[in-house]
Structure formats: C-alpha cells, structure tokens
Amino acid sequence: MDFEPVSIGNDVVEFEVGDSAGEDGGAGTGLDLGLGGRVERPPSAGAGDTSGSDGDPGLEPCEGMEFHSEQAARTFYNSYARRIGFGTRVSVYQRSRRDGSVVCRQVVCSREGFRRGGGEGKSKKRRRTVTRVGCKAQMTVKKRSSGKWAVSKFVEEHNHELVPPDKVHCLRSHRHVPGPARSLIDTLQAAGMGPSGVMSVLIKESGGVNNVGFTKIDCQNYMSSSRQRTLGSGGQLVLDYLKQRQAADPGFFCAVQGDFDNLAGNIFWADANSRKNYAYFGDTVNFDTSYRMNRYRPVLFGCALLLNESESSFIWLFQTWLDAMSGSHPVSITIDQDGIIRSAVAQVLPGTRHRFCRWNVFREAQEKLSDVYCSNPNFETEFQRCVNVPETIEDFELCWESLLERCGLRNNEWLQLMYNARQKWVPVFLRDTFFGEMSMMQGKDSINSYFDGYINASTSFQVLIRQYENAIACRHEKEIKSDYETLNTAPVLKTPSPMEKQAANVYTRKIFKKFQGELVETLAYPATIIKDMESEAVYRVAKFGEDHKANFVKVDVFRKKACCSCQMFEFSGIMCRHILAVFRVTNVLTLPPDYILKRWTRNAKSESLLDDYMVGFTSNPQESFTARYENLRIKAIKYVEDGAESIHSYTVAMDALQIAAEKVAASKKHGFGLKQKTLIHGCQSQSRCTEQDEKIRELTSELANASLQCEEYQRKLLAVLKDVEEQKLKILVKVQNMRLNLKG
To answer: Could you give the CA distance from residue 666 to residue 658 in angstroms, rounded to a whole number?
Structure first.
C-alpha cells in the first residue's frame, strides 16, 4: 500500500467514524471534537480470530490482535484504558487512495501530545487547564485484505500517574450514558424529575456513584438534548395563543427572543393578574428551577419557555420580566446554585439580595454525600438542624465543625465548597434581609405546586396551552376559597390579649396562626431590663430555664419601635416572641402599625397601591411611556392582522397608515401647542391650589402643637414609669426582708 507523507500536529482537522474497507491507503489526520474515545458499545462488536474475544475485559492489547471492525478495536482499547486508569481519544488515520475509506487508525492516551498555545498578540478568552503531557501510549490498527483490523503497533508505557478506579468514571472517554440508563432517564424526566433527582435514583440503582458510569453534567446534557429533540413544531400554537390573549386583555404582556419559527428563541409572558400580584407581593421573589431540566420554566410572576439556556437567555428573561413589572426590582430573590443563573441575576439585579434555595442544597447533598447518608441514617436530620437551627453565626460555626468532626467529613470537597458559599444559603447570614420565610424548619414552599399535576416533561405545546389555563383557574379558585374562610370564619383565640384579637382581624388565617404561636410563647419568655436610657431601653429575653440562649431587644417605648437580635421581623415580616415579650412588660397592648406588613393582611390587594405602581393599568393611557407604547402595540397588532386578510384590505390599510404617519409627524413637529394648552389649564387651577396650600399650612400648625403636647405627655409618663419601677424595687426589698425575718 502507498501512503502520502503527512505532517501530524497536535491539532486535528477531521473526525470520522465508519467501517469503510479499502486496500490502498492515503494519509490524513483525525479531528478530536471533544468526543475523543467515547465509545458506543454496539452489540455487533466482536473479536477476531487471533484475540479470541475483543470484549473480554481481562485481555491486554498486543501486536497482531485482530478485530472484526475498527469500532470493535476502539471499544476494546477504551475498555482496557478504563481498567488500567487512563482516558483515550482518536488521533490520526489513513485513507485509501482508491475509494477514500479509512484503512488505518491510531487511538492514543488522552494526555498524548501538547496543546498548541495561541500566537503572539492573540488574547485568549480563558486559560484552559493543561491536560496533555506528551504521553506516548497508543494502539494503531490497520485493515487487512481480509477485511479484518489488526493491531500493528502498541505502546504500553505512560509518562504520568494513572487514575484510581474510584475516579476513572470522571474521564471523558469513559463517561457514557448507555441505553438502559437512557430509558430510565427518559422515564424519570417524563415524570417531571430534574437531573439531581435522576442522578440520585441512578446512584441508588447502580450501588454507588462510581458505578453509574457518567456524571451529573452528562445526565443534564442528555436531558437537555432530549428536550430539544421532542419540542416539535408546535411553537406557533403558543405564539398564536399569546397573540389572542394580548388582543383580548390590554394587561397581558408577552415577549419573544430570537427566531421562534426555528425553535431557537425564548418566550416570556405574564397576564394582568401576575403583573398586579407583583405590585402587592414583589418584594421577594422565588425563581424556582425544578422544571428547568424538564421542558418549561414557571416563574413566580410570569411564565417562560426557554429553549436556549445560555447566560444571554437568562439575562434576557430577567430584563424582560422587569419590563413587564414596570422596572421595579425586588428586595430579594431565591435561586439555585447554577453559575449561569447567578451571573445573570448579578448583572440584571445588582441591588437585589440573592440567596441559594436551601432545599435544593439539601437535595444535592443526598447525591454528593450518598455514602454518608447510607452509613449514617441520622446524618440528614443533623445536617438540616446544623443549617436551620443556629440563631447566631458563632453557633453555626461550632455546630458545623462538630458535624464534620463526628462524621469524618473535614476533607470533603463538596461540603468545603458549600461552606465557602455559606453566606448565600445558610439562614443565619441572611436574616437582615426580607425573604418572607415563615420558619427555618418549614418544607420547601415551591412554586412547583402551581403547575404540579398540569405540566411535566411529556407535555406537548397543544396540551401546555390548555393546562396553563387550568392551572391558573385552579389557583384562582383556591385563593377565593382561602379568602372566604378568612373573612367568614373566626379563629380560636388563646389569650385575652387585645393584640391577639387585633391580629385575628388584620392578618390572613395562615399568618395569624404563626403570629399567635409567637404570642403564646411569650408566657415562657420573661424580659429583664439591662439598660435604661432616657428614651430607649435594652431588654434581655430568654426562655425560662434556658438563660444561656438569650436574645436582646432594643425598644423605644414612646415611639413603639423595637428591634431584636434574632432579626425575625426583618427576615419574615412577623413579630418575634422576644419583642412581643418586651411589649407585654411595657404595656404595649396592640401591634404598632409599623409592624404590620400589608402583604400579610386581609387587605393586601388594595387598589391604592396600583395607582402609584402599575402605570400600565391606569385609566388614562397618556400617563406613562410604557402605557402608551403597550396600548399602541396592541392596536397595531390587530391592525396588521386585519389589513393582511386580502389585497383590498391591505391597500386600504396602507393608505390609512400613510395618512396616520403624516399626522404623527405633524404632531411631533408642533408639539409645543399642547404645552401651551396645559399651561392655560394650569392657570385656571391655580386659585384652587392656593386654597389647598392654605389648608395644608393650617393642618401643619395644628400638627406641630399636637407634637409639643405629646412630648410633654411623654415626659410625664416617663416620670410615672420611673416611680413605678422604684416602688417595685422597694416592695421587692421589703419582701426579701420579710423572708429573712421568717427564716430567723
């Protein structure tokens, strides 16, 4: 056979997989596309006569060993590499000059050669890890005239350390999702399970993470590609549905990114109720990712279909969502640890405090620490208590160190990684920011329940439209039922406190139960004053019998303002038992208005809030650019659809559009006339404004007098309180003396 000379470098130019036959050969080089020696093990791959069986895992390569096909040879060498502890990749090949088929193939160690660096003056986007060290280990096979492939060269020695058996599954050439695993993944994905849950099942079924044969990233990539393959061509149905909703509802918001016809774009929509709800409850947002690896991503105040989960897609999603919500940023947002989502949130919501979803961390712990969970049944409970229970940073640090020491996990890489990010997910580091969380030990209150039973991985576009409407209707019905129960049934009061009665009439049923629990607990939490200043005081509050676990409350009695070291109100918006205990001893009988968050009350959805916030829903379409743009866009869509129905309607529409364009241009040119009319209208109302200003001055004067009277009252009341305290001390002294006399 004749071969052309060829210069073989570290870079490669072509990758082919085939069983082509040929007698004469030409030369070429093979392209490494990141698939390297990743081998699909076909049932037909078998050994030749010389080797006996190329599928036998106990055999080692040797010159002269024969295989039925090139694929069988590569499969055998990759199996050998897994057993020894190194990865493989396809290197150079030679072609037949007669028919162009491959007649010689070289499979090398994945660390063969050296990666070519960039030329001078070329800036690299990122520095890649050095993995190639010039290893010479390889196996070359050539095609014989009989059609079989034989080993013509085998180099066994490596110039680097081999990978131990418990880590060999991380090598790229050995990360393979086999057929049975794919079937199981498809089934679990169709049931709505994400990659973390799928991997947990696979680890349990295979007897350990080392036996799975691939990583979570491989599972995630397979599920993502499977979703892309099954999306189908029903996207236009969703787009048509959204157009119909826009035409029928002026408050319906929809945006499309990219080329939707080719299923390469993303869609976001939010109906009028979602946008209104954000005005009431948009201070904290939960961006749930449980459906991310299925097919659809529900968002708390809207819905999105993301067909391209890149960083730019998430940036577009958050920016579009903010546009739909009048540009109002939330105080806090809960996300998962995904680096792409974290980067997008940091860019679009730089002033928003973001944390990781704690329950996603616990779920990932089941995968990363599966061996610990199996060997120590109590570890899960201890781990969650270590995260949820501590009330101070010092307590958490001690608890964490103790847990690592008891379980021998001090060198665990995943736990070290999560500890380094503790300020993003451990509650004690986040309590100074409002997240609306009622309890540290509560289960995950996920938005999944919004779509559970309606949408999963197997839902088609046609069914999606119908099920989306059903889910919205069901949730609306539940809200109506909850509101009815709150308004028409009275909760059972447990104390004679006026504050409890007030809370029962103000809060929703769920929030009242939480508040009631805190109020009842004050009976076991005595408050002791430790610092008394002229206008403020500091109290020490601890549960009876647990003086070592004390919280400190700083209170201004006259202004009825207090703050506690536990920061429960800042975190959840509910008064803690410590402040309530101080209010009890300072005779604060009702909840001050500053400590009743409107979002937790029966009247949370007040229309007055919308007047200042949701400009898109105002009755006057000229109040804001957003409202004007939205109204014009809706009219324009309807205009285009009607005008395109026939040639005649198209001609009429174009003529009318030309006339309208000329009028708009004229109005822009002579816009000053509108300002003059506005000025005249302002002069007519000037007299009314003068009367209002006079009344405002009178009320301001009365308010100043009332404030002076209040200050005098405060001084007198403070003197009375001090007298009461002195009398209490005198009584205590007398009682103590009487006890001593009785004992004597």
So the answer is: 12
CA-wise closest residue to 71 among 99, 100, 42, 93: 42
Contact 143, 149 (CB under 8 A): yes
Burial label, 261 (beta-carbon count in 10 A; 0-12, 13-18, 19+)? exposed
d(CA 207, CA 221): 23
**How many C-beta atoms surround the C-beta of residue 257 within 10 A?**
19
Which residue in 534, 574, 570, 527 sits closest to 551, CA to CA? 527
Q: Which two tokens stand for residue 166?
A: 């418990």
- pLDDT (tens digit per residue) in 38-65: 333 333 333 344 444 444 556 789 998 9
Entry pTM: 0.55
Using DSSP bridges, classify how beta strands 353-356 and 527-532 pair: parallel, antiparallel or unpaired.
unpaired
End-to-end distance of the chain based on CA atoms, in angstroms?
122
* Consecutive H or E run containing 696: helix 686-743
Give the number of other CB atoms < 10 A from CB of residue 276: 21
Q: What is the distance between the alpha carbons of residues 573 and 568, in angstroms, rounded to a whole number?
A: 7
Mean of the per-residue pLDDT values for the chain? 75
Q: What residue spans define the domains of the chain?
A: 65-112+132-166, 179-230, 249-450, 490-600
Helix, strand or coil for residue 26? strand
- For 690-735, how does the pLDDT look when each residue is reduced to its tens digit (9 = 90+)? 566 666 666 666 666 666 666 666 666 666 767 777 777 778 777 7
